[in-house]
């Protein structure tokens, strides 16, 4: 009986140590504070067929201990990703810690919005939530040690693979730049056309109303026998 | 006798290490800053790490924002008002949480989109065991220099993309403004011309004041 309890205690200590390790390591990255109903949106302007991986971790402010708790069960974050046309690409609820992935199919501004969706409203109680966020785009999403292990690559092969990925990303970005430049050119040409036609139209309106004014007034004064 | 608990814990630890913390790294984020708002970001940095904060305003108003960087003691390391683009490098003098804030409090109704790039330390090496005894071969060092060059190409591409986004946003603004103002002016022109004529007519059509005087 005592043996079972000792084993359980050791397992519990292991788990606690692991949780502390998780909290300590953290996602080496940026964090910010978010209110209960607040929605934070981030924009990623990416070419098409680009993978984006986002990792987040949340910590809740505990009023009693005046610190941020390492992890809070029951506290979820809702992640919504919209593509440049406004269509929702990803809309999912994750736990207090999560990882979301999506691949873009159209080039442009993708909007990633996060807001908390706590199941127990009382735990928030006017406190704040600390969100650690890390978004990696394109070739930064590749996990090279994993690729090396999976494909059994030598060091040189792995470096070559990394260079290939980088060059592919540069190519995609250049392609996207060509598409953007085309849009910019169309906008400028449209502005040019509009300025031209509306200036002509306004001049014509001016002349026509001038003529109409003079004729109307002349006939009016002739009727009044003043001319 | 194998203990399932410890095996699970070991697997979890491996998962943590795989997902893993990365020593140093770079965070690039583009976010929207509403009017009269201030948004702050924090990062825990160890002493002696060289960090760079670079930011650029992409859309909104006069394309400027206030930026402020503080160290863990609250000492302001960098403070600039109404800047469009800037880059600031510093070395962390002590361990702790560094905070940087972007403020749009001076603006009453324009949302701004701000991009920032916060580089902490060096990028992690490709191989975990980078404390090598043997030097890199020529091929490997060539790969390293190509990698660095490509990183700077990607960096330039990012900055170019942001400037182009800024230019494009201004051009699209101009386009809509030209349309609305042209239509507005045409309407005003018509209304004023017709109105003038009728107003003038009303001066002469007034029955109460007559130009003829009754002679006695």
From TrEMBL, chain A:
Membrane keyword on record: yes
Entry annotated with the keyword ATP-binding: no
GO cellular component terms given for this protein: endoplasmic reticulum membrane
Localization annotation: Endoplasmic reticulum membrane; Membrane
Domain of life of the organism encoding this protein: Eukaryota
TM stretches of this protein: 195-214
Natural source organism: Vombatus ursinus
Domain GOLD as annotated: residue spans: 39-137
Membrane topology: Single-pass type I membrane protein
Keywords: Endoplasmic reticulum, Membrane, Signal, Transmembrane, Transmembrane helix
Name by which UniProt lists this protein: Transmembrane p24 trafficking protein 4
UniProt cross-references to InterPro entries, sorted A to Z: Emp24-like (IPR015720), GOLD_dom (IPR009038)
UniProt-listed Pfam families: EMP24_GP25L
Alphabetical list of PANTHER family matching this protein: TRANSMEMBRANE EMP24 DOMAIN-CONTAINING PROTEIN
UniProtKB/TrEMBL annotation, chain B:
Keywords: Cytoplasmic vesicle, Endoplasmic reticulum, Glycoprotein, Golgi apparatus, Membrane, Protein transport, Signal, Transmembrane, Transmembrane helix, Transport
Signal sequence annotation: 1-26
UniProt GO cellular component terms: COPI-coated vesicle membrane; endoplasmic reticulum membrane; endoplasmic reticulum-Golgi intermediate compartment membrane; ER to Golgi transport vesicle membrane; Golgi apparatus
Domain spans labelled GOLD: 38-120
A GO BP annotation: protein transport
Transmembrane segments: 178-200
Record Pfam families: EMP24_GP25L (PF01105)
Membrane topology term: Single-pass type I membrane protein
Compartment(s) where it occurs, according to its Swiss-Prot or TrEMBL record: Cytoplasmic vesicle, COPI-coated vesicle membrane; Cytoplasmic vesicle, COPII-coated vesicle membrane; Endoplasmic reticulum membrane; Endoplasmic reticulum-Golgi intermediate compartment membrane
Coiled coil: none
Family affiliation: Belongs to the EMP24/GP25L family.
PANTHER family with a match to the protein in the record: TRANSMEMBRANE EMP24 DOMAIN-CONTAINING PROTEIN
Function: Potential role in vesicular protein trafficking, mainly in the early secretory pathway. Appears to play a role in the biosynthesis of secreted cargo including processing and post-translational modifications.
Protein name (database record): Transmembrane emp24 domain-containing protein 7
Organism the protein comes from: Vombatus ursinus (Common wombat)
Record lineage: Eukaryota, Metazoa, Chordata, Craniata, Vertebrata
Name of the encoding gene: TMED7
